[in-house]
From TrEMBL:
Its main location: membrane. GO terms for molecular function: transmembrane transporter activity. One of its GO terms (cellular component) is plasma membrane. GO terms for biological process: siderophore-iron import into cell. Belongs to the binding-protein-dependent transport system permease family. FecCD subfamily. Gene3D superfamilies: ABC transporter involved in vitamin B12 uptake, BtuC. CDD domains: TM_ABC_iron-siderophores_like. Keywords: Cell membrane, Membrane, Transmembrane, Transmembrane helix, Transport. It holds the Pfam family FecCD. It comes from Pseudooceanicola pacificus. The chain crosses the membrane at residues 21-51, 71-92, 104-131, 137-157, 169-191, 211-230, 259-285, 305-323, 330-347. InterPro entries: ABC_BtuC-like, ABC_transptr_permease_BtuC. This is Iron chelate uptake ABC transporter family permease subunit.
Length: 355
């Protein structure tokens, strides 16, 4: 038995349970999708529309708009963003070998937030051709550029002589996040009342503006980034045994670090760009799955994508109905649900807090 199989050679029942969990989560995702299409503030339900179609009746204009232009793109956005944040969290925790790591640790969220704030506060002074070119996508596009810019800066700061230091990356990420937060604070201070309202809603996170245009703009990058992260399972298992051991068993550690950073940056940057700030998905989902089926990243990453999508869909449904016909920002819902779970995880793992 080689060293890398120390993690992969977990008890057979645990590996079998992790693979069985694929199907359980896939079923849960299907049910969550039905709930998302069924429930809403308008009173239009999926079951009623299916009944009409079954009787040969045509859907009304309102029913077509609600189903095809509002709920379906919103559901697609939930699946993409939830999977992106959860897989990014699992990859970051494996890369840093720290179960308390989060996608925000690399400064992607702070950089994306700064880009969005710049677009909201200073967008009016941009040249007309830029405003015409980006249209309604100016804030998401600026958030994406901010996330990628912070990632490139982080990578350059933490890489020397072709080798990336995880410790330097952690410290540089904290510094970049603090700097982005300071600049964001200055911009918030000079913003007017309308801009402050836009900043508040964007920062709390929302999928209310989901559209097929946003799905098509963020979807390909999220899917590509998540697919790249899913290929890191065996390498992250080897890294858990230490970098020296991982190198000895044939893992290209530097290539794996670079791929992980780029995958997390692409997935998180695109997700934050179209949804705003949504917390706790990236840190809570991998923890719950480790408790349920163990730390094997070969199954953990895929299950994280499924569970992240399920939880964000359910949070979105709650956000739509809890104060209907108004709507809560989804970031509030994930914080209310995620913070108690995170505290429970901390109490279970007090030893980590003392490090």
């Amino acid at each position: 038995m080689t060293a890398v199989t120390e993690i992969e050679a977990a008890p057979r029942d645990r590996l079998s349970r992790a693979r069985s969990l694929h199907w359980v989560l896939a079923g849960a995702l299907g049910l969550a999708c039905i709930a998302s299409l069924q429930i809403g503030a308008t009173g239009v339900t999926l079951s009623a529309m299916l009944a009409k179609l079954g009787q040969g009746e045509a859907l009304s204009q309102m029913e077509r708009v609600v189903l095809l232009d509002i709920r379906l793109p919103r559901l697609a956005m939930c699946v993409l963003v939830g999977a992106a944040l959860a897989v990014s969290g699992a990859a970051m925790q494996g890369l840093f070998r720290n179960p308390l790591a989060d996608p925000g640790i690399v400064g992607v969220g702070a950089g994306a937030g700064l880009g969005a704030i710049l677009a909201i506060v200073l967008g009016a002074v941009l040249p007309a051709w830029i405003i015409d070119l980006t249209g309604n996508q100016m804030v998401p596009f600026a958030a994406f550029l901010g996330g990628w810019g912070s990632t490139i800066l982080l990578y350059r700061l933490s890489t020397r002589h072709g080798r990336t230091s995880v410790a330097t990356m952690l410290l540089a990420g904290i510094a970049i996040g603090a700097l982005a937060g300071a600049v964001s604070g200055i911009l918030v201070y000079i913003a007017d009342d309308r801009q402050l309202r836009d900043l508040t809603f964007w920062g709390l996170g929302s999928l209310a503006g989901a559209s097929w245009a946003k799905v098509l703009s963020a979807g390909p990058l999220i899917l590509l980034s998540v697919a790249a992260a899913l290929r890191l399972g065996r390498a992250l298992n080897g890294l858990a045994l230490g970098e020296a051991t991982a190198v000895h068993i044939g893992i290209d550690v530097q290539r794996m670090k670079s791929l992980a950073i780029l995958a997390v940056a692409g997935a998180t940057g695109a997700a934050v760009a179209v949804s705003g700030g949504i917390g706790f998905i990236g840190i809570v989902v991998p923890h719950l799955l480790r408790l349920a089926s163990g730390p094997d990243h070969r199954t953990l990453l895929f299950n994280s994508a499924l569970l992240g999508a399920v939880l964000l869909i359910l949070a979105d449904v709650i956000a739509r109905v809890v104060i209907a016909p108004a709507e809560l920002p989804i970031g509030i819902v994930t914080a209310v649900l995620g913070a108690p779970v995170f505290l429970w995880i901390l109490l279970r793992r007090r030893g980590l807090v003392e490090l």
